[in-house]
Amino acid sequence: MSIAEVKQNAEVKMGKSVEALKGELHKIRTGRAHPGILDQVSVDYYGSMVPISQVANVSLLDARTISVQPWEKGLGAKIEKAIRESDLGLNPASQGDLIRVPMPPLNEERRRDLTKVVRNAGEDAKIAVRNLRREANEQAKKLTKDKLISEDDERRSLDDVQKLTDRTIAEIERVVAGKEAEILAV
């Protein structure tokens, strides 16, 4: 393994940490509706639990309402029950085959709680990035110990990995700040 491979590996893994954070924050409910909110809700489909998006068409009716159109007639009640029993605090209503899921407005206390959740997710992502930095630095030190690279190359590698870490943490802070602003917007 070379220094370039160590840096490349760290960069790819740090990028995945940022993407995982974005995916996690996407699930957090704001005042606006988006179909991704229901991604974590599973429904019993012939004995196995599957995400709603695999048994129904999930789309937006307007800015505050999600529509769920089951692909099979008998699934409407099961989907409605799964949404109601999820920890999202949503109350779906059936209209024939169509299930409407209105998004309740967030109160101030709930907004503050959600910003705490967002900050915790951001901190977890930063911890993951710092752990990746430590792993990359340990690999560089091992290469130096094995006399595969010089100490100067090791020092340059440590500096490059630190710069990459700083950029990634700045990106994480930008994503967290954007989500907080979205949550606090009334």
Automatic annotation (TrEMBL):
SUPFAM superfamilies associated with the record: Ribosome recycling factor, RRF
Name listed for the protein in its UniProt record: Ribosome-recycling factor
Free-text function comment from the UniProt entry: Responsible for the release of ribosomes from messenger RNA at the termination of protein biosynthesis. May increase the efficiency of translation by recycling ribosomes from one round of translation to another.
Protein's organism: Roseateles koreensis
Gene3D superfamilies (alphabetical): 3.30.1360.40, Ribosome-recycling factor
Cytoplasm among keywords: yes
InterPro entries the record matches: Ribosome_recyc_fac (IPR002661), Ribosome_recyc_fac_dom (IPR023584), RRF_sf (IPR036191)
Cellular location(s): Cytoplasm
Family the UniProt entry places it in: Belongs to the RRF family.
Domain Ribosome recycling factor: 21-184
Keywords: Cytoplasm, Protein biosynthesis
Primary location recorded for the protein, binned into one broad class: cytoplasm
